[in-house]
Amino acid sequence: MSRLDIHELNRYQYLFLGGILGEALEKKYIGNYLVENCEELKKLGVLNTTYKTLSSKKSAKENAKTLLEILNNHYQKHKKKIILFAHSKACLEAILAIKENKKVYTEIVEKTILTQPPLKGAPYFNKGFTKVLDKTWPGFSCLTKDYYKNEIEEVLIHDQSLKEYIRKNILVIKGYKDNISDVSWIIKLPFLMCKTLGDYSDGLVRLKDQGLEREYYQTITLNIDHSDLYCSTKLSNISSNTRNKIFFQIFNWAIKEDELKESNMPKLVQISIKQKNQKYQYSPLTPEKI
Predict the structure, then answer these.
(1) 215 within domain boundaries
(2) Which of 50, 99, 200, 216 is a plausible cystine mate for 176, CB 3.0–4.6 Å?
(3) Contact 4/250 with Cβ under 8 angstroms?
(4) Domain enclosing residue 256, as ranges
């Protein structure tokens, strides 16, 4: 990672929060999920950084209550505000934690980075069989289309008391890839499934499901798949050096409040002009703006 002021970094503590099935992906022999992110920070001399995946079996709403307890415990232990990196389903847990207790959350969480959030669900969980999972595996069923629509919009759009906090302290990182050759082997199959639906996606979440119609939070869109920022670089198609450059820009935004621009990101993950002009659902029948 490029040089950052270690004294500035150590004003905060860092929590990387994993998405569904993260408990398995965290294993070194599977995906080293979130682990490498923490290791890179420790190499810089960061004192307080950790990672956690909440129960994949439980719904995001149930996990949100647990997350509040974890955040509060970390804050009481280290007496430092938290910079939270949430990925995939964990983004829902962070948003619902704000809804659960916005006073506690906004007082102890300095910045929240929501990476590839399934704000409108994920297409693989929209089949009829997910109804069976409502009781047996709520963690999957809560990813169906618009499952938390009202709660998410209440936090990110309608709650006037949160507007300034959302605008200043929340960043949404969206991702998608054009070509399967650029996608990690671990998600090539779901990427193809998404493409057959006629949608741009990061392999697991469609681009149009990673945002809302009205966006008061800060947002950038990168040429990344669902594994690129938090899984082992052995699974990803981007190098650790490229990943570090991405996080360098994110930390400058989070700590120094520098303006975050897609153009400052490594060229490998920048969305091309051609891609920007083609941000639509590429069904052969009815292209639909997103």
Answers:
(1) yes
(2) 200
(3) no
(4) 6-177+206-271
